[in-house]
Amino acid sequence: MTEATQINFDQLKVSCSNCSLRELCIPQGMTEDELKLIENIIERKKPVHKNDYLFRAGDTNRSIYAVLSGSVKTLVDNPNGEEQIVGFHLPGELLGMDGFSGDAHTCSAVALETSSVCEFPLEKLDEVCHEVPSIQYAMRRLMGKEVTKDHAMLLLLGRMSAEEKLASFLISLSKRMAQRHWKPTEFNLTIPRQDIANYLGLAVETVSRLFAHLQEEKIIEVDRRRVNISDMDRLKAIVGDCETVKPVKAKQG
User: Fold this and answer.
1) What does the buried/exposed string (b/e) look like for 88-97 if buried means 16 or more CB atoms within 10 Å of the residue's CB?
2) Which residue among 16, 115, 157, 184 has the highest number of C-beta atoms inside a 10 angstrom radius?
3) Considering only CA atoms, which of 166, 170, 172 is closest in space to residue 207?
4) How many beta carbons lie within 10 A of that of residue 51, not counting itself?
């Protein structure tokens, strides 16, 4: 885990009003009374350890979850019966909304490291939604974000080259770190290379080669799991986010 995500589990007792991640998973503009209603329904589960399941595809959909510390991946079985990773969830991000279309989860959630989550039981959440209209609006907004993520995933797996996929992935992580007021250019990459490859639809060897190439070009520095983005402009140029710097061409191999 990164220093930013090394949270003492005694902190699980903290209220939402004092939680540093409040702005990421609780609707903005709520009154103190509304916030207390939310706090009263939240269940803070025991930590889940690496490779433990938070829920499995087919499980009855009873709750949505907010990651408090650590990280969680979500995955589905593709038509060939192989696992396909569809998302990585960091502190302050919600998961479990895949079950909204029916009564059961359509994906599984697995801890990438020892992680803690806050649980929002749907039955109690429905009751609160009637008392707090802002929650209903927030849920619609969150669903919209999920659709946007799906579209971004399709773009990654569609027209982007292998190098563009990895660059886009690192830029996305950087933006998510910044949202948490953590260092956006230096972080521990707790996601294994094979999981990154699975998510991006690439071979593990390709991902390793691209990491090595970006390091040779001094765009990133890698020390075991620690990644430092030393030239963000050039990294963005790879995916066309920076017009003033020419994209770096990947080596053929």
Assistant:
1) bbbbbbbbbb
2) 115
3) 166
4) 9
Residue 48 CB partners (closer than 8 Å, separation 6+)? 54, 70, 72, 111, 114, 115, 116, 117
Read off the pLDDT of residues 43-82 as tens digits, 9 standing for 90 and up: 887 899 999 999 999 999 999 898 999 999 999 998 888 8
Cβ-based neighbour number of residue 239 at 10 Å? 21
Q: Are the C-beta atoms of 100 and 61 separated by less than 8 Å? A: yes
User: In this predicted model, what pLDDT tens digit does every residue of 203-222 receive, in sequence order?
Assistant: 999 999 999 999 999 999 99
3-state helix, strand and coil shares in percent for the chain, rounded to the nearest 5: 45, 20, 35
Beta bridge partners of 240: none
Pairing mode of beta strands 116-121, 83-89: unpaired
